[in-house]
Amino acid sequence: MEVASTIADFRNSLKGDIAFVPTMGNLHDGHLELVRIAKRNASCVAASIFVNRLQFGEGEDFERYPRTFEQDCEKLEAEGVDVLFAPIEAELYPVPQEVTVNLPKIAAELCGASRPGHFNGMATVVLKLFNIARPAYAVFGRKDYQQLHLVKQMVSQFNLSVAILEGETVREEDGLAMSSRNRYLSEIERREAPRLYHRLQEIAQAITMGSRDFSVLEKQATADLESRGWQVDYVEIRHADTLETPHETDARLIVLGAARLGKTRLIDNICLEG
């Protein structure tokens, strides 16, 4: 595996049709599954590791975000990644990034409501990385469903020549969605953490069984989590294609949740295909 720290070296290392997996490092099997999807779809697999300051708000965990570069390289090489792009901040942002991506209003809802500017920062670096790598494919996980939705909108509305491939959420045995931030959890918090997924499962099951009182389902799950000490950002049912508030007759739904357990913010979702 080649490791490139400059844009010029990264571009020079890319050959053939490229599938690209952008990450912030601290890799787990969820990331590696995205690499496996990339490998099935292209002759050249490229990944990036870059902790993007633009998508962290004031008081968030930019400085303490886990950085495990050597272990990440070992995992990527074992999965057959051809090229890793690992720039320093000055390589991607040699001057202050004053030109940014302005996303639709849905970016200010759900996770965007408690993390203002997060998705604009995410989209800006993703667009830069797409322009640098010029991949045929890029792979994103469904755990970060709102991010996936916004990246797909950006690609469509900017007419970018990259196809977005989706990876299913990879979970621990008890259902907890794999996340780089799971390592922040204390032992007690780790035992409690799967409850978010289980509450979303209960909502999805109730909808499947015919319940259409979405507001009641959301409030019940929120109350249960808060009774266990969670700080709930949201538990909401949205239309799976648009992330807008659904009509009672809509079949394609997604149940999303974000909540803090101690100092750790966890997100998850379950899609009902209809």
Question: Can you characterise this structure?
Answer:
It is a single chain. This protein has 274 residues and is an alpha/beta fold. It has two domains: 166 residues, 3-Layer(aba) Sandwich (Rossmann fold), CATH 3.40.50; 93 residues, Pantoate--beta-alanine Ligase, Chain: A,domain 2 (2-Layer Sandwich). The protein is 37% helix and 20% strand. The chain is built from ten helices and nine strands. The strands form two sheets. It has a six-stranded parallel beta sheet with strand order 1-4-3-2-5-6, sandwiched between helices. Strands 7-8-9 form a three-stranded antiparallel beta sheet, with helices on one face. The longest helix has 16 residues. It starts with a strand and ends with a strand. The mean pLDDT is 97.
Straight-line distance between termini:
42 Å
**Rg (CA only):** 19 Å
CATH topology name of the largest domain: Rossmann fold
- Annotated CATH homologous superfamily of the largest domain: HUPs
Helix content: 25-40%
Return the string of H and E elements. Answer: EHEHEHEHHHEHEHHHEEE
Task: State the secondary-structure class.
Answer: alpha/beta
Mean pLDDT: 97
The low-confidence runs, each spanning 5 or more residues with pLDDT under 50, are none
Highest CATH level, the class of the largest domain: Alpha Beta
Largest sheet composition: 6 strands, parallel
Count helical runs: 10
Strand elements, count: 9
Number of domains: 2
Question: How much strand?
Answer: 15-25%
Q: Could you say what the CATH architecture of the largest domain is?
A: 3-Layer(aba) Sandwich
Side by side, the strands of the main sheet go: 1-4-3-2-5-6
